[in-house]
Amino acid sequence: EVYFKNLSKQKQKEVMEKNGNNHKLRVCVATCNRADYSKLAPIMFGIKAEPQFFELDVVVLGSHLIDDYGNTYRMIEQDDFDIHTRLHTIVRGEDEAAMVESVGLALVKLPDVLNRLKPDIMIVHGDRFDALALATSAALMNIRILHIEGGEVSGTIDDSIRHAITKLAHYHVCCTRSAEQHLIAMCEDHDRILLAGCPSYDKLLSAKNKDYMSIIRVWLGEDVKTRDYIVALQHPVTTDIKHSIKMFELTLDALISFDKRTLVLFPNVDAGDKEMVRVMRKKGIEHHPNFRAVKHVPFDQFIQLVAHAGCMIGNSSCGVREVGAFGTPVINLGTRQTGRETGENVLHVRDADTQDKILHALQLQFGKQYPCSKIYGDGYAVPRILKFLKSIDLKEPLQKKFCFPPVKDNISQDIDHILETQSALAVDLGGTNLRVAIVSMKGEIVKKYTQLNPKTYEDRLELILKMCVEAASEAVNVNCRILGVGISTGGRVNPREGIVLHSTKLIQEWSSVDLRTPISDALHLPVWVDNDGNCAALAERKFGHGKGVENFVTLITGTGIGGGIVHQHELIHGSSFCAAELGHIVVSLDGPECLCGSQGCIEAYASGIALQREAKKLHDDDLLLVEGMSMKKEEIVSAAHLIQAAKFGNTKAESILRTAGTALGLGVVNILHTVNPSLVILSGVLANHYVNAVKDVINRQALSSVKTVDVVVSNLADPALLGAASLVLDYTTRRIY
Q1: Do the domains at 413-540 and 545-715 have one common CATH topology?
Q2: Burial bucket for residue 98 (CB in 10 Å: 0-12, 13-18, 19+)
Q3: Domain extent listing, the chain
Q4: Segments of the chain scoring below 50 in pLDDT
Q5: How far apart are CA 516 and CA 493, in angstroms?
Q6: Which of 715, 735, 733, 683 is nearest to 442 (CA)?
Q7: Phi/psi of residue 673, each to 5°?
Q8: Residue 581 marked in a binding site
């Protein structure tokens, strides 16, 4: 009630103006069975009574259209509602598969109906499998959903279905304060939740004044008195069909022994319902003088029957919800309604495993009169719901927003995880240096160790082990948990076996080397090994410009030229682990000789070694140094001197760098025409010197369809180490590699 006191008339006026003064809210009400119609009918009458605000479309599906369940669609017609569409959606069967198939059939048929109706909002009730199909269809077709009776708790698969519909629904009408709190706890927007009460209570609380004796006589016989008969309504529990059928059999035996006139209603359409009907027939219930077995009772008359019964027994939600309005004693059997709020009129027999237990419950409850309960409503739900519907602004974004509570960073309760940062040992085997680092999950280099790379296999492996052991010991002191070892090395690598197949000339005695076994045995950690170019690409994918990019290429421009190709988020290794040897793309048939033995490779033009070679030639011819430059006598000529000379205006140095940039650009064009990436990342010490030249060559030489590719310089300070670490960290975060 507080909600509506706070809802000003001005807001309604503003909403009407936003929606257009002449626009009526087109409401589709879909009803699946007799139970949900009892809740939806009062709302439908309310909508129909205000044609200046609403247009009503009624869709009927589910058990309404099945003869075995009383063809209950007729009561909708008797209430003078025009049924827009009838959908036969029930697949006959006696197991869970039939329910699934029924949902599937509804999902197939509903889109056409909703396309034709184009409602502004669909009203869905409850927790039945049919309702899940309705909500799913409407949500996927961008139709707003108003869910009735969300947030409640019960003890079957209905719970899961009800909460699933809640997550699909845009607006919620709940019946109790607890249900409202449950919806808020499920992160639903409080402004879109209405605590209205149950719509059926609007009818229940005004129902006692009618001529009830004639109704009782029609259904139970002329000689029956008020408070001297029983209403039984029991459904199968789909999560434990066998037990629920046994419980129904015990219930019927107890009712036969209790020897009171009893009205037994057929169960809902659920897995196991046919077996329950067979149990009734096996015990002769339909022909027993004390029993009346019926498929359906109109809701108006059903209200009178339960209001004046001596007791109601079964596991229907009606027993714990609606019957409380009359104070009629109820025996709730089993777990189907576990968690529902109930009045004092309800006696629970959750473990109804013997006839005597049920019979004893009947003896305790029959004929009592309890105070009326208004837990589920006060008789004014429909006016609140109509007012809520009028307040809906159709111009608000359709996309739901969930109100998640503020949460702290996820902290594991395992003491090791609390105290330690998950990390990797990263090893980079370069032509000059051997480096080992502790790298955190976020890509932070916690500690780094550097040594000169030994020239022999034995010394190199011994140094790797020594440095790794030292780093692993230090990891304890800096609160890092080492998850594994990742190794980046030059040459051709079999990452599946952790073997260096062939190395570059920069690293001697480094072919057919098993790195995984000795390091794993020494450290008792998993070990991953890959080519340095591939590791650079992995570093970009996890920490750099390649994060979230489906297809990209990384080019390393350093001592040599290497790289890696990521296609559909995964690294390409090739059939013989030779993919992405990008430095050996040939860009000239008669170019300079490459270390690989070929001629005209990118590496022969643009690598640090190639630039050093050209710098030496200029220096030997006394053409390198220009005004502003100086070199010590013992200083070794390097690529850096060539770059410096170009900056100081040395035209020959400029020409060499221009040729190198062009060669690299032509290689990139070949890559674009081969794998068509959306991004090219230049990495390494020479990247900044080449990026503009590469872009110029792409603009001149590439096909127009690939000219839009982004070419960027890596922002990672140490891609080789980060890539080696990502070999480990990607695995620990369950990436496929």
Answers
A1: yes
A2: middle
A3: 22-204+381-391, 207-365, 413-540, 545-715
A4: 1-9, 410-413, 415-416, 418-419, 735-737
A5: 12
A6: 733
A7: -75, -15
A8: yes
**Contacts of the segment 366-370: beta carbons below 8 A, 24+ positions apart:** 366/230, 366/258, 366/260, 366/310, 366/311, 366/329, 367/227, 367/228, 367/310, 367/311, 367/329, 368/311, 368/329, 369/227, 369/327, 369/328, 369/329, 370/327, 370/328, 370/329, 370/343, 370/344, 370/345
The reported pLDDT for the residue numbered 700 is 94
β-bridge partners, 456: none
Distance CA 271, CA 266 (A): 14
Give the span between the Cα atoms of 602 and 590, in whole angstroms.
12
Strand residue runs (E) in 576-657: none
| 535 is known to lie in a ligand binding site | no
532 is in an annotated binding site: yes
Pick from 194, 197, 201: which is nearest to 7 by CA?
A: 194
| 22-204+381-391 is classed CATH 3.40.50.2000 | yes
CATH class of 413-540: alpha beta
Question: Residue 147, SS3?
Answer: strand
What burial letters (b/e) apply to 20-42, b meaning 16+ CB within 10 Å?
eeeeebbbbbbbbbbbbbbbbbb
Q: Which residue, chain included where needed, has tokens 């602004």?
A: 393
Looking at residue 19, what is its pLDDT? 56
User: What's the token pair of residue 570?
Assistant: 């995964």
Residues 131, 36 contacting (CB under 8 angstroms): yes
Pairing of strands 291-294, 261-265: parallel
Per-residue pLDDT at 222: 92
Q: Which two tokens stand for residue 152?
A: 């409640």
Q: What residues form DSSP beta bridges with 294? A: 265
The reply, when asked if residue 354 is annotated as ligand binding, is: no
Digit-coded pLDDT (tens) for 636-657: 999 999 999 999 999 999 999 9
Question: Token pair of 540, please?
Answer: 């970009």
170 annotated as belonging to a binding site for a ligand: no
Residue recorded with tokens 């003078």:
80
For residue 605, the tally of other CB atoms under 10 A from its CB is: 26
| Residue 651 is assigned to a ligand binding site | no
CB 605 within 8 A of CB 614: no
pLDDT of residue 582: 92
Please give the span between the terminal C-alpha atoms of the chain, in angstroms, as a whole number. 58
Residues with catalytic roles: 532
Among the four given CATH numbers 1.10.287.80, 3.40.50.2000, 3.30.160.40, 3.50.30.10, the one describing domain 207-365: 3.40.50.2000
Amino acid at 687: A
- Beta-sheet pairing, 421-429 with 480-489: parallel
Taking a C-beta distance cutoff of 8 angstroms, is the pair 445, 438 a contact?
A: yes
The per-residue b/e assignment along 75-86, b for 16 or more CB within 10 angstroms, e otherwise, is bbeebebeebbe
What gap in Å lies between CA 43 and CA 322, rounded to an integer? 16
Q: Is residue 403 annotated as involved in ligand binding?
A: no
State the CB neighbour count (10 A cutoff) for residue 521.
Answer: 11
How far apart are the C-alpha atoms of 495 and 577, rounded to whole Å? 8
CA torsion sign, 324 to 328 to 332 to 336? negative
The SS3 of residue 737 is coil
Instruction: Look at residue 639 and give its three-state secondary structure.
Output: helix
Q: Please tell me the predicted confidence (pLDDT) of residue 16.
A: 54
Q: Domain 545-715 - what CATH class?
A: alpha beta
Name the H helices within 212-262.
212-220, 241-258
Burial label for 112, CB within 10 Å (0-12, 13-18, 19+), is: exposed
> According to the annotation, is 311 in a ligand binding site?
no
Closest to 374 measured CA to CA, from 322, 413, 333:
322
Here the tokens at position 455 are 């020239």
Strands lying side by side in the sheet with 433-440: 445-452, 433-440, 421-429, 480-489, 527-531
Is 211 labeled as ligand-binding? no
pLDDT for res 179: 94
Residue with tokens 């890559």, as numbered in its chain: 671
